[in-house]
């Protein structure tokens, strides 16, 4: 029977580590210390961290600071993690003390042990590849962790931008499809002036278009990294050649337009860029909530019909609920809450580092994941929305507010007189009533969809 544990040592003493795992003693200590949220470190951060480690090890190899055979084994281990292998070897809770040191060491130990194995060694021995002296050579948690987070966030921002574009496109198609559907607009949940359903969906698509542009542009806020700055941005313990070369290597490996900060002390101490990007995600979340609320109201009024996706009640037969707008609202609320967490964490760094990088990473990447997923779901859902043109027309024909369209032609006082006469008549269809009073030619023209969506009026046509 094989041993269930192996014994590893560090400055604090000995500790049992499960025999078959690739992590080591520092990861094991963190597992025992930080059992908080029940959520592991976001996999995208681990993948990005291995991109950073690959760049660092490759740079050390090129500068002959690390033996080529040893370095190549670590690079191969990095590639395996980036490809999605060894995913069960990163078990740490997303919330942890130490500014991310536990995550850095988890990555160092897994890469070291896998490289050790590749070179014929045994897990936990570190005779050939040491987690600190090889994998972490010329690095610190304080320069690798923020850099990895920025790489992970940029990659997710690009994915999010594509998904927002999908939602924008779905809404634009509805804008065109509904361009001839006349309806009554509403302000303060009361009937206002006429418009088309296409205009309403056009407003949705414009808001999402702005979100797409913001998300696309905010990648720029994350391109400046502090790799090479080591502990506090001074580059202490790292060779000058390494500091200048590692950013070039990382840029080449990732394909991202990264640059080394001009002031690495600033880049290590201050994290306002994450708060700025989170604020942009919050803006998108607020638009999703607004649009979701409007879709629910329009569905309740019967002017649109949302796709029926599942049974809406365990007690009411035939009930269907607007579940996607409800889910989108909850997704938006979570992103807004994460923004507050990120803002608080960015502001609470002290002196030369931010101790709260793990919660910044967890909240930012979680928000990106949520928004990527809800945009994909929402775009598919929006594509299935249909208009009930008869219902829209029913509200339109009976709304006193439609007489506002006639103000340039009959004036305010005459409009009030006609409304009073209409109320006394007992009729329900105001449009038909006005056609009888003012003639079908005038009312037909002013209530035509193309006139309702035009910007202002071109001429007055006073009736005789």
Domain count: 3
* CATH classification, class level of the largest domain: Mainly Alpha
The outline comes out as: elongated
Structural class: mainly alpha
Which radius of gyration do the C-alpha atoms yield? 30 Å
What integer is the average pLDDT?
92
Low-confidence stretches: none
Q: Give the CATH superfamily of the largest domain.
A: Fumarase/aspartase (Central domain)
- Fraction of residues in β-strands: 5-15%
Q: Describe the strand arrangement of the main beta sheet, using strand numbers.
A: 1-2
Task: Could you tell me the CATH topology label of the largest domain.
Answer: Fumarase C, Chain A, domain 2
- What's the count of strands? 8
Structure description:
The mean pLDDT is 92. The chain has three domains: 133 residues, Fumarase C, Chain B, domain 1; 247 residues, Fumarase/aspartase (Central domain) (Fumarase C, Chain A, domain 2); 54 residues, no CATH class. The protein contains 18 helices and eight strands. The strands form four sheets. A two-stranded antiparallel ribbon has the order 1-2. It has a two-stranded antiparallel sheet with strand order 3-4. It has 464 residues and is mainly α. The relative contact order is 0.10. The termini are far apart. 59% of the residues lie in helices and 7% in strands. The chain is elongated.
List key phrases describing it.
464 residues, Fumarase C, Chain B, domain 1, 7% strand, Fumarase C, Chain A, domain 2, two-stranded antiparallel sheet, 3 domains, 18 helices, mainly alpha
């Amino acid at each position: 029977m094989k041993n269930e544990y192996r014994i590893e040592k560090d400055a604090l003493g000995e500790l049992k580590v499960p025999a078959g795992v690739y992590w080591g003693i520092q990861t094991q200590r963190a597992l025992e210390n930080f059992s908080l949220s029940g959520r592991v470190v976001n996999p995208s951060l681990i993948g990005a961290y291995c991109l950073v480690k690959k760049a660092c090890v490759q740079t050390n190899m090129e500068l002959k600071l690390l033996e080529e055979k040893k370095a190549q084994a670590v690079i191969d281990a990095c590639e395996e993690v980036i490809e999605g292998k060894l995913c069960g070897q990163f078990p740490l809770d997303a919330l942890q003390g130490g500014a991310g040191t536990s995550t850095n060491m988890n990555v160092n130990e897994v890469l070291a042990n896998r490289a050790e194995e590749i070179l014929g060694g045994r897990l936990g021995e570190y005779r050939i590849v040491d987690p600190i002296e090889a994998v972490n050579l010329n690095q610190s948690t304080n320069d690798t962790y923020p850099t990895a987070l920025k790489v992970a966030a940029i990659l997710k921002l690009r994915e999010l931008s594509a998904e927002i574009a999908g939602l924008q496109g779905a809404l634009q198609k509805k804008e065109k499809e509904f361009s001839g559907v006349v309806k009554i607009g509403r302000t303060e949940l009361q009937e206002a002036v006429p418009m088309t359903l296409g205009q309403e969906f056009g407003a949705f698509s414009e808001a999402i278009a702005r979100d797409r542009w913001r998300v696309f542009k905010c990648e720029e806020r994350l391109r400046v990294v502090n790799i090479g700055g080591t502990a506090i941005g001074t580059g202490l313990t790292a060779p000058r050649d390494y500091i200048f070369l590692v950013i070039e290597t990382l840029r080449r490996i990732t394909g991202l337009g990264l640059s080394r900060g001009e002031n690495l002390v600033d880049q290590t101490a201050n994290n306002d860029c994450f708060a700025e990007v989170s604020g942009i995600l919050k803006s998108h979340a607020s638009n999703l909530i607004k649009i979701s609320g409007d879709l629910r109201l329009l569905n309740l009024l019967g002017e649109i019909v949302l796709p029926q996706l599942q049974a809406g009640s365990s007690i009411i037969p035939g009930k269907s609920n607007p579940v996607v707008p409800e889910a989108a609202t909850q997704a938006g609320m979570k992103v807004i809450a994460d923004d507050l967490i990120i803002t608080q964490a960015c502001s609470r760094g002290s002196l030369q580092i931010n101790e709260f990088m793990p919660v910044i990473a967890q909240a930012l990447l979680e928000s990106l994941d949520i928004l990527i997923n809800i945009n994909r779901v929402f775009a598919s859902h929006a594509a299935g929305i249909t208009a009930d043109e008869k219902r829209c027309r029913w509200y339109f024909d009976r709304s006193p507010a439609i007489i506002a369209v006639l103000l340039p032609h009959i004036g305010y006082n005459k409009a009030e007189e006609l409304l009073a006469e209409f109320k006394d008549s007992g009729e329900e269809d105001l449009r038909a009533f006005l056609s009888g009073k003012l003639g079908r030619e005038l009312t037909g023209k002013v209530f035509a969809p193309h006139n309702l969506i035009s910007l202002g009026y071109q001429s007055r046509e006073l009736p005789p």
